[in-house]
Write a structure and sequence with these properties.
This protein has 388 residues and is α/β, with parallel strands linked by helices. It has helices at 3-12, 17-27, 29-44, 96-104, 131-151, 157-164, 175-182, 208-216, 248-258, 272-282, 317-327, 343-347, 380-387, and strands at 54-62, 65-74, 77-82, 90-95, 114-117, 169-170, 172-173, 191-195, 221-226, 238-242, 261-266, 286-295, 348-354, 357-362. Pathway: Antibiotic biosynthesis. Keywords: Antibiotic biosynthesis, Methyltransferase, S-adenosyl-L-methionine, Transferase.
Length: 388
């Protein structure tokens, strides 16, 4: 299922039941089931599994039809195929429309769910190594892994960063900040863009933080932009695009095609020139209420990276951030009449600076300032003295 249709499917999870069913019928029940099973498969890899390979029979209902799949888990395996087993160790039944909501909509959705663990057909022993008890234990673990993959939300960014070996935690310590600023967006159908995929010129390496974002923003669409082709990284809800973050024309076209975005993370070259170009072209395409994040701002102080030892320089990434701080208070500044507030000043509503990472809030920065009668160019103590 392509990105557009997958986005339609995620949207359908929030619709009234009749509209959800209509969307499934339009997309095709089998295509919907396969898209959901692909998402579930990706999630199962984050969860404890049985020691032995164990098959769970999935029986999904839509209209008067049943769709049957075999989900094999355990021993490092996650395989899905259409079909039925004569006597599966575990069986999972649910209406397809409710499974869609369970995977992609907030809340609990298990009204039509049935779970069955196969009983023994004859008496069995009680020893821990009894074959049937061992099989039953594996079946219980596989069923639990499947249910957790369907309904669990992965809410701890640090845990996900460690799981995927992303450098957002360990060396850098960014995930607590990300958790703080991005948690309000976690359950939304967001679009997230990260500049810099990692792995240099190997098309199959990198993408650790993209996978972290995919599982944190469990209803989101994740884009990775890199100067090298990253064809081996793409998977459902996660795609990569090749491009140069220093190319303003490319960025503008990319943003028009794929935006608007809810979150943009610049973890690219870290050259100040590229950081400023990326912000100029991409920030206008961040939705109100979104976040624009610049990582590894230490390079702002390093001349070899386009930075400067001059702390008052306005051409470095941190110099630019300092200017944004002044822009927050554009209404209070004394300016010539023809010096109107810039689009950036009117839309940056917050600047949060932490060690080597900056988080910018997007919104409407038009809060009224003090009334006009409050003195600007005179010493207010003299003004008050004149009033007494």
């Amino acid at each position: 299922m392509d990105d557009h249709r997958l986005s339609e499917l995620i949207t359908a999870a929030d619709l009234p039941p009749a509209d959800t069913d209509a969307a499934i019928a339009e997309l095709g029940a089998a295509a919907v089931a396969e898209a959901l099973l692909s998402e579930i498969s990706a999630r199962t890899r984050l969860l404890p599994e049985p020691i032995e390979k164990t098959t769970v029979q999935l029986d999904l209902g839509f209209d008067d039809k049943r769709l049957h799949y075999l989900f094999t888990l355990g021993a490092g395996t996650c395989e899905v195929e259409a079909g039925r087993a004569p006597r599966p160790p575990a069986t999972y039944r649910q209406d397809l429309s409710e499974l869609l909501r369970a995977v992609f909509s907030p809340g609990r959705h298990d009204g039509t769910r049935e779970l069955v663990i196969a009983d023994s057909t004859e008496p069995h022993g009680l020893a821990a190594d009894d074959p049937w008890l061992r099989q039953r234990r594996s079946a219980v673990l596989a069923a639990h892994q499947l249910v957790e993959a369907i309904s669990r939300r992965f809410t701890d960014l640090t845990e996900l960063a460690v799981r995927f070996d992303a450098d957002k935690w360990g060396g850098h310590w960014y995930t607590p900040h990300y958790q703080h600023y991005l948690e309000p967006l976690r359950d939304r159908r967001v679009k997230v863009l990260e500049i810099g995929v990692g792995g240099y010129d190997d098309p199959n390496l990198g993408g650790a933080s993209l996978r972290m974002w995919k599982h944190y923003f469990w209803r989101g669409r994740i884009y990775g932009l890199d100067i090298y082709p990253k064809t081996g990284i793409t998977e459902p809800r996660l795609r990569t695009v090749q491009g140069d973050q220093g190319d303003a024309e490319f960025l503008a076209g990319f943003a028009r095609e794929h935006g608007p975005f809810d979150v943009v993370i610049d973890d690219g070259s870290h050259f100040s020139e590229h950081v400023l170009t990326s912000f100029t072209q991409l920030f206008p395409h961040v939705r109100p209420g979104g976040r624009y994040i610049i990582e590894d701002t230490q390079s702002s102080y390093w001349p070899g990276w386009g930075g400067s030892t001059d702390l008052d320089s306005t051409t470095t990434s941190m110099g630019f951030v300092k200017k944004l701080l002044d822009g927050l208070n554009h209404q209070e500044q004394i300016r010539p009449a023809d010096h109107a507030a810039s689009a950036t000043e009117l839309t940056v509503t917050g600047v949060h600076v932490h060690h080597n990472v900056v988080v910018l809030d997007k919104g409407v920065n038009t809060e009224q300032g003090p009334p006009s009668w409050v003195p600007r160019t005179e010493d207010p103590r003299l003004w008050y003295a004149g009033e007494s």
